[in-house]
Amino acid sequence: MAHVVTGEDFAPDTAALAAVIFGVTAFAVAQGLTYPLISLVLEHRNVSPSLIGLNAGCFAAGLAVATFAVTWLSRKVRGDRLIVAGLVGCAVSLSTFATFDTFWVWCIARFFLGFFVSLIFMLSEAWLNTACPDRLRGRVSGLYGAGMCGGFAAGPLVIPIFGTEQGFAFALLAVYVACVAFLTIILTRRARTLPEQAASGALFKFVRSAPMLICMVVAFAFADIAAISTMPVYFVRLGYSEAFAAISVTVLALPTALAQPLVGWLLDTTSRFGVAICSGLLAGLSFIAIPFLQSQAAILVMFGIMGAASFSLYTCALTILGERYAGDRLVAGSAAFALAYAVGSAAGSSSVGAVMDVYSPSAGPIAAGCVVLAFTAALVASVLRDRLRRRS
């Protein structure tokens, strides 16, 4: 049986890290394609933004359910095998989108897609922090984030090629994810570490012990899903082409992927909470600026800044998680992150879509920016309160 290397400093488990990054990249490609593609397909079928948000909320519900199932599943099945099972489940769910056209079938498939990617999400995070020493944690988290964002960027590029009316994009993605599952099986055989099992009841204990980290992940999820789910609809309603709406998601993710290694270096060399606060502030202001920009180039530049800043919140949270926790508490923390992501993403897709329905398309990004700034203010207050408590 594989063993975990202990100690403050050790050689990173490169096979495990490669498996984790490949797996999360596949998850990101799936999410990066399905969020804008499903939104655009349903918009083309004259489905209201509220129902589009509901469909996206099914994905978030799957994320949430998986967080409560991971404790039982990790005791029955080894963590690396659960990651492979999650990839296979994603491939099957994506095949469903390519086969059926019924809205409610898509809701069910979206739920199971969320469930399986949540397993990948939670176990990959825990394994990542187990497989690398703290001296490299920020940079490894940055590479992990770069892989995820690269996947987000690559996914929407399929839309201009295959369009939104056929199921080819979903079918192609299902094949790709299945191939990643096979590669992951090969890499896990060379790994020296394994994801830890989740302890019973540890999820809620972690939520109570780390509210700042939960706040950061909720803010990231809200901004991320608001951007990739509702903003394509925002652009189409303002008269932009579907190709521009899809490319905007790629532009959102590509600079984010390039920025994460730099963010990781900053996390290893400066204040980790300071980086998080600056990221939240920049993400919120970027959302608010979007409706006031007329040039397509300026909008895309602002989208890139928004993506890099909002995703940096997650990179910060993941790095601090590995710094402060170990063993089964890493799995509990990863599960809490997945639950926080589910809450934030459900709120981001449904509330911003509802605001666009009730008021105007431009109200959507402004509302999203205000919410992210409110989360950032709460994070600042929490950090200041923690410092005052330490001084007293």
Structure write-up:
The protein has 392 residues and is mainly α. The protein has a single domain, classed as Up-down Bundle (Growth Hormone, Chain: A), CATH 1.20.1250. The chain contains 14 helices and no strands. It has helices at 14-44, 49-76, 79-99, 103-130, 137-154, 158-162, 168-188, 202-209, 211-237, 242-269, 272-289, 296-324, 328-358, 363-391. The longest helix is centred in the N-terminal third of the chain and has 31 residues, at 14-44. It is globular, with a radius of gyration of 19 Å.
Key features of this structure:
392 residues, single chain, disordered N terminus, mainly alpha, Growth Hormone, Chain: A, MFS_trans_sf, globular, MFS-type transporter ycaD, MFS_YcaD-like
Write the layout of secondary structure elements.
Blueprint: H1 14-44, H2 49-76, H3 79-99, H4 103-130, H5 137-154, H6 158-162, H7 168-188, H8 202-209, H9 211-237, H10 242-269, H11 272-289, H12 296-324, H13 328-358, H14 363-391
Helix pairs in contact: 1-2, 1-3, 1-4, 1-5, 1-7, 1-9, 1-10, 2-4, 2-13, 3-4, 3-7, 4-12, 4-13, 5-10, 5-12, 8-13, 9-10, 9-11, 9-12, 9-13, 9-14, 10-12, 11-12, 11-14, 13-14
Subcellular location: Membrane
GO molecular function: transmembrane transporter activity
Organism: Rhizobium favelukesii
